[in-house]
Design brief:
The chain is an alpha+beta fold. It has 2 domains: about 1-175, no CATH class; about 190-400, no CATH class. Helix content is about 40%, strand content about 20%. The strands form 4 sheets. Strands 2-6-7-1-5-4-3 form a 7-stranded antiparallel sheet. The chain is globular and about 80 Å long. The two termini are about 30 Å apart.
């Protein structure tokens, strides 16, 4: 199995400047390759340039510009070209499936924050000597950078990436490991229902309250964004010192919210994986759930629109984004795989409207957000607990269903 590790780097002033130049030059390579593809398609009989063609040009590019392109790792530059190739592959896939295409865009220097090295030892080297208290990672053109390694790296390091977050630098490793021993079985199965009022409700009647990290930081974020809005929009190189500090303050607050949200997701997922052998959850289409409502034209007054509940839906969308369901489910699946647990996704339709006692399904069974009262048999309970119970039953049915 493949596991990722993320460590804080502590570069010197000169190394930090070199890392910034590396990102800048890779960004320039990415944008130049994108421009070549656009020009070839527009002016040369709609010719599509592939990754192989652009990779073959790297040798000449490095010889022509040794100061900016020739000093960096050849493999990392190939990885940047593959990154662009994947963007075009995703673009054509969306075109064929009828989705919004989203043509690949040019990247600004502040929006290009990662450089990948496909192989340890090719342009980079992870150096974690067992008897040396200081861990270092070496990058071509930068040198040996100290790393704050807060936990051991198990397995063989496969790839290395450099990532910039604000003024901090991180190294991200992927290591190939043997499948760890599974946790001892507990004999427990559970269904979970993700929500906004409560982050999680399970089929045993327990609840995990929603931390609402974004809402807690909303006042500080609003003040920081208002301070930033007073400055005219400029490129990074043209910003004043006060403007740059305002930008960094907003980014710092957003980063803090994101880290707290991920920390909460890790702790909640770990508790579930340790306590249960089988975990069933709803297969949520989060992107569809957070779409803005379609406008409603007024048939009596052309050019005007009827109320479509957009304001209320915007508030719900903020709460969904603040909950971070997608991040949580990704972490849950990863931890369950490492622990030998089973996670099952089930169809979420009518899980909160179906009575777990008699099976009657009706909209009237859920009179309020929290209450469930079956109009057929009179069973009443918390609506989220009912939904989690139905999710568990659907998951067990799917687990024990005979294969076709």
């Amino acid at each position: 199995m493949i596991r990722a590790y993320k460590f804080l780097m502590r570069p010197t002033v000169g190394q930090a400047a070199a890392l910034g130049e590396m990102l800048r030059d890779h960004c320039s390579l990415y944008n130049g390759a994108l421009q070549e593809r656009r020009d070839a398609y527009r002016h040369v009989s709609k010719t599509n340039i592939t990754y192989g063609v652009q990779s073959a040009q790297l040798k000449d590019i490095r010889a022509f510009d040794p100061e900016r392109q020739g000093r960096w790792s050849f493999s990392s530059q190939q990885a940047t070209l593959r990154r662009l190739d994947k963007a075009f592959a995703a673009f054509f896939r969306r075109v064929k499936s009828g989705e919004t295409p989203g043509y690949p865009r040019y990247r600004g220097v502040n929006w290009f924050d990662t450089v990948d090295f496909p192989k340890d030892g090719d342009g980079c080297r992870w150096d974690a000597t067992p008897h040396d208290p200081v861990t270092r990672v070496r990058f071509q053109g930068v040198g040996c950078v100290k790393v704050h390694q807060h936990r051991p790296v198990l397995g063989k390091v496969k790839t290395i990436s450099v990532k910039r977050e604000g003024r901090k630098w991180f190294v991200v490793l992927t290591a190939e490991q043997d499948q760890p021993d599974p946790l001892p079985p507990t004999g427990s199965v559970v269904g979970i229902d993700l929500g906004v009022a409560n982050f999680l409700a399970d089929s045993n009647g327990d609840f995990v309250p929603s931390p609402r990290h974004g809402r807690q930081a909303s006042a500080k974020l609003e003040a920081a964004q208002q301070a930033l809005s007073r400055f005219p929009r400029r490129k990074a190189k043209d910003r004043t010192a006060n403007h740059q500090r305002a930008v960094e303050k907003v980014a710092k607050l957003h980063g803090k919210v994101r880290r707290r949200r991920i920390d909460h997701a890790h702790k909640t997922a770990l508790a579930l994986v340790r306590a249960h052998d089988v975990i069933a959850h709803e297969d949520l289409k989060i992107r569809n759930m957070s779409k803005a409502p379609a406008p409603k034209p007024d048939p009596d007054q052309p050019g005007t629109f009827l109320s479509n509940g957009a304001a209320a839906k915007a508030g719900l969308n903020r709460s969904i984004a603040d909950a971070g369901w997608g991040v949580f489910l990704t972490i849950l699946h990863a931890k369950a795989e490492s622990a030998g647990r089973e996670v099952i996704a089930v169809d979420p339709r009518n899980t909160s409207r179906r009575c777990p006692e008699c099976g009657h399904t009706a909209k009237e069974n859920r009179p309020t957000q929290e209450k469930f009262h079956c109009v057929s048999c009179g069973h009443h309970a918390h609506a989220d607990t009912v939904a989690a119970t139905n999710v568990l039953r659907a998951g067990l049915v799917r687990r024990y269903a005979n294969p076709a």
